[in-house]
Amino acid sequence: MCTNLPKSTSLILRFAGMAFLTAVMLAGLTVAAMAHAGSVYVPIDSWTYPAAERLAALTDTRAEVLGLRPWTRAQFAHFLERAREMPHDGEAEKLQSTLEREFAPELNLVKEETALESAYVRTTQIAGSPVRDSYHFGQTFADDYGRPYGEGFNAITGASGYAQYRAGLFYARGEYQHGASLHAPSAATVAALATKDQVTTSQVLTQGGPAVDHLRLLDTYVGVSFGRFTGTMGKQSLWWGPTVAGAFLESNNAEPIWMARLTNDVPYSIPLLGKFRLDMFYGKLQGHRNLAQPWIHGEKLSFQPIKGVEVNFTRTAIFLGDGRPLTFTRLWRTYFNLNDTGTKSTVNTNSVQNDPGDRRSGLDFSWKIPKIPVTLYSDSFSDDEPSPLAAPTRSSFHPGVYIASLPGSLAKLDLRTEGSYTESQNPSIPEGFNYWNGVYKDGYTNKGLMIGDTVGRDGVAWQAWSTYWFSARNQVQVSYRNHYISPKFLKGGGTQNTFKTTSTMVLKHNFEVQLGVQTERVFIPMLTGTGGPKYNVSGWAGVRYTPEHKMQ
Fold first, then answer.
1. How far apart are CA 164 and CA 42, in angstroms?
2. Is position 421 within any domain?
3. What are the pLDDT digits (tens) for 94-124?
């Protein structure tokens, strides 16, 4: 007997079932792992990641995976223990001592800790109309947890904290967010985007509207550690790539995704393949207008075959959604079907049943060159292919180089350059194919913003940064970015040229002050409605309090 349930009832049952299974899993693992110490994940936007990456480059300390973040606090401690054994110059000593103060509880094997991690406020003033549509045009501010912004005054106020008790862990981060009103695209632009995306005008993912004031949870989750693994459930952000200017398949550009996640934070050793780690998740996407309520799952395998080299393989799939309930066959096909099945432009019984979902594969690597503080790395992904290596003309690439310290008197200065492109090199593929799908036409987004790299669906970008390190937490950085949109994708194409400078200073009592200014030139005729460029200027100031950890 088959009963058709109302949509709302079906959704409630899905959530209830998932919550019940997760609770059973966590309860069982907690009983089995009472003696194992749990450790929360360090937020992706923490100052500790660039400091640890520079320390690794200066000391040849390699073990934690650069392309698989966030790391747990315990992982940072293990990294610092290995770094202690390596030769240090003056720059490395400063980084080592500052990081060791931050992770003192973990270095001292504290298993029970409750801490206020940070409290912060940031205000941003924008003169001119910014860009906030990475699915079509680009973003003035990227990789910022999907926070709202518009022309005028913008602000966030938030706090984060955590509790660790033996195997159990809890982390919470919440914010009040104010975003100024944002100029919406014209009706003609929306109509053109609807044609490009093959949706109705009401389904076009556009950004724009009145001012926004709301409370938001960012990374907030509960979890348990057992053996080499940690399982978590809640709202979480991932960064799956060694790059800094966006990761192709998982970044913190959009609001964190509600997910259940399992990862082995302590690696295995496999003959020939070296150290091995696995990260996997199931999550729920929000804000999709064409086929609502889709889910996403992702898996990442990381190998370190030789010292200084890491290679990572990634797979993600968007599946389920309205009219596509969970079945074993549908789930199986998202993993193992190698070809599209059914006609994506028409929704018939066969295509709905056999559709393998919106799948992407990724490959990234990094190589720390021996004896010099230089790291080479690259990220890549391909739509509907088992690997970017199998179809290079259909794939997107994002290479980069990081010089952790320049020679001689410029030792406090580093330099990083990256380039990325998603412009199709295969004439048989429609422009804008990357990050778009014929069934899931809202593409690779969460609440309207790209989950991955804001280079977008058919773009080319390059960026350079240089940071002067007064100390591990006192820095001045300048950067320049050029973003090009293909005219084959959007009529008239477009460019964004962005110059930014930021300074960070730590004052007494662990108060951190950050000041920044950014100028941007925008030439996107379809968006601005003019034949010439437009400009916006942004300035921001932030204060963050990070109390020193008290050893019990």
1. 13
2. yes
3. 999 999 999 999 998 888 888 999 999 999 9
Q: Would 455 be classed as within a structural domain?
A: yes
Q: In whole angstroms, give the CA distance from residue 184 to residue 136.
A: 13
Gap between the Cα atoms of 24 and 27, Å rounded: 5
Domain that holds residue 393: 10-545
DSSP string, 253-281: SSPPEEEEEEEESS-EEETTTEEEEEEEE
DSSP state at residue 46: -
Look over the chain and give the mean of its residue pLDDT values, rounded to a whole number.
88
At residue 234, φ and ψ (nearest 5 deg) are 150, -160
Give residue-wise pLDDT tens across range 213-265. Answer: 999 999 999 999 988 899 999 999 999 999 999 999 999 999 999 999 999 98
Range in 24-28, 38-42, 231-235, 386-390 the model is least confident about: 24-28
d(CA 437, CA 317): 11
Residue 1 maps to a domain: no
Q: Which residues contact 209 (CB under 8 A, 6 or more apart)?
A: 181, 182, 184
Phi and psi angles of residue 37, each rounded to the nearest 5 degrees, phi first:
-80, 125
What's the number of domains the chain is made of? Answer: 1
CATH value at residue 523: 2.40.160.130
